[in-house]
């Protein structure tokens, strides 16, 4: 079983199943249901007041589901006759692995090929007094039995941190996000601003351009957090029930014994340097997923890369993983889905005059009767300017962004162009339909607000 500094334990399935996508999406759904209850009144549902959320009920249900997935993985390994050893592994030489149980019992295994897929773990800041003693990370938030209460999340551009802030706000908790520089680094920054603007309107507090200085536990049990505004050097203080550190993830490569084998590592990130076939500098040692340098830290890419690697090692195929145009979604209160290049990256590669950006502010039909603000519901299609205008990137904020983006991801893999969009007939009335209707360019300066139904 994996274990965090706080003692949180979980079983098979990696980050995604235990402390990532699965519990996060379920808790996001809990928050969406809270919003749906408020909307329901406008739609005629008579709901007695007051309504409130019970953390323990949600946590138990989510944790039970995760445990069922752990068990499912265990059963699948048995069915496929895969021997599962619950041990901490390290490499002795390029063909030998040493496993050590919690009780200290050692097992030595030899193999022709060795695959490393150990992922990463959340980091704690090392220069802030009280950070480690009094803080938790995303490894722990999903496994809390009691509500975290009033929470401050300190992030370093992490999407998981924003997602946590979103569902904590959504279930009614006082939530603050402290941001050193920008939110959602690596994503299109116009879209990132729309996401955080919506969150602010939704009730999440933001302390922008701020850095934490220290965390102290008061006699009352509350945590007193001191932070500084970077631009003014002014200090602030407030008390919280919980502080969640989201300052990045790091691989535990030092524990694997790679240095004595000559496995090349990026000294800055600690990640293993890999070739297109996932091999390391030692030919029979492979690495994929979050542990590998330059790979997207996304579960489906790791799964697909692992399957393709297994096929190659078994001699069934020579196909390599294609890491281009991988779609993803950030499950913030207003979801953000994207595939391909950000506008910034497209401009960098093709020049400002080499791209055309079609965009639209739209209003989801379901927001109308509910009288919800749709000011941040937006989409843009980044294209090459010449020829058929090949689509380089697609970005969308709005309901069900992940479901919508998955289909458009396929179209990008097939080389979709702007003219293909225009030839596509929409499904009415959907949000996805707005993508294939988009016709205003940023270059034109015209109002991109969609009118009519």
Automatic annotation (TrEMBL):
Residues 326-435 form the Pyridine nucleotide-disulphide oxidoreductase dimerisation domain. One of its GO terms (cellular component) is cytosol. GO terms for biological process: cell redox homeostasis; cellular response to oxidative stress; glutathione metabolic process. It is an enzyme of class 1 (oxidoreductase). SUPFAM superfamilies: FAD/NAD(P)-binding domain, FAD/NAD-linked reductases, dimerisation (C-terminal) domain. GO terms for molecular function: flavin adenine dinucleotide binding; glutathione-disulfide reductase (NADPH) activity; thioredoxin-disulfide reductase (NADPH) activity. Its EC number is 1.8.1.9. Residues 12-306 form the FAD/NAD(P)-binding domain. Belongs to the class-I pyridine nucleotide-disulfide oxidoreductase family. Catalyzes the reduction of glutathione disulfide (GSSG) to reduced glutathione (GSH). Constitutes the major mechanism to maintain a high GSH:GSSG ratio in the cytosol. This is thioredoxin-disulfide reductase (NADPH). The lineage of its organism: Eukaryota, Metazoa, Chordata, Craniata, Vertebrata.
């Amino acid at each position: 079983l994996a274990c965090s500094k706080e003692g949180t334990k979980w079983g098979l399935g990696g980050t995604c199943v235990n402390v990532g996508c699965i519990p996060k999406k379920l808790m996001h759904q809990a928050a969406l249901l809270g919003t749906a209850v408020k909307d329901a009144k406008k739609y005629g549902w008579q709901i007695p007041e007051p309504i409130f959320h019970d953390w323990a009920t949600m946590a138990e249900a989510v944790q039970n589901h995760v445990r069922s997935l752990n068990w499912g993985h265990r059963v699948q390994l048995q069915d496929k006759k895969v021997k599962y050893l619950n041990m901490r592994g390290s490499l002795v030489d390029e063909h030998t692995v040493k496993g050590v149980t919690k009780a200290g019992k050692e097992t030595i295994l030899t193999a022709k090929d060795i695959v490393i897929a150990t992922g990463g773990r959340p980091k704690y800041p090392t220069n802030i007094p009280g950070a480690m003693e009094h803080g938790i990370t995303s490894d722990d938030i999903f496994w809390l039995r009691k509500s975290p209460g009033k929470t401050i999340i300190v992030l370093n551009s992490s999407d998981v941190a924003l997602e946590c802030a979103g569902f904590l706000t959504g279930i009614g908790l006082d939530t603050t996000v402290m941001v050193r520089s920008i939110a959602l680094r690596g994503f299109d920054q116009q879209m990132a601003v729309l996401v955080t603007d919506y969150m602010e309107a939704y009730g999440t507090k933001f302390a922008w351009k701020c850095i934490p200085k220290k965390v102290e536990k008061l006699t009352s049990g509350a945590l007193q957090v001191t932070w500084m505004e970077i631009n003014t050097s002014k200090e602030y203080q407030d008390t919280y029930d919980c502080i969640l550190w989201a300052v990045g993830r790091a691989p535990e490569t030092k524990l694997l014994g790679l240095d004595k084998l000559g496995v090349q590592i990026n000294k800055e990130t600690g990640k293993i340097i890999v070739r297109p076939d996932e091999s390391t500098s030692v030919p029979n040692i492979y690495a994929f997923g979050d542990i590998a340098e330059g790979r997207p830290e996304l579960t489906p890419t790791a799964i697909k890369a692992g399957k393709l690697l297994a096929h190659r090692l078994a001699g069934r195929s020579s196909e390599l993983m294609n890491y281009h145009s991988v779609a993803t979604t950030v499950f913030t209160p207003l979801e953000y889905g994207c595939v391909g290049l950000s506008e910034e990256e497209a401009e960098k590669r093709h020049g400002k005059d080499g791209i055309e950006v079609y965009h639209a502010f739209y209003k989801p039909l379901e927001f109308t009767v509910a009288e919800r603000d749709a000011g941040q519901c937006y989409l843009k299609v980044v294209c090459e300017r010449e020829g058929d205008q090949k689509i380089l990137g697609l970005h969308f904020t709005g309901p069900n962004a992940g479901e919508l983006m998955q289909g458009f991801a396929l179209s990008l893999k097939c080389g979709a162009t702007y003219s293909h969009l225009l030839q596509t007939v929409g499904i009415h009335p959907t949000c996805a339909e707005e993508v294939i209707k988009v016709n205003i360019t940023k270059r034109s300066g015209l109002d991109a607000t969609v009118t009519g139904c």
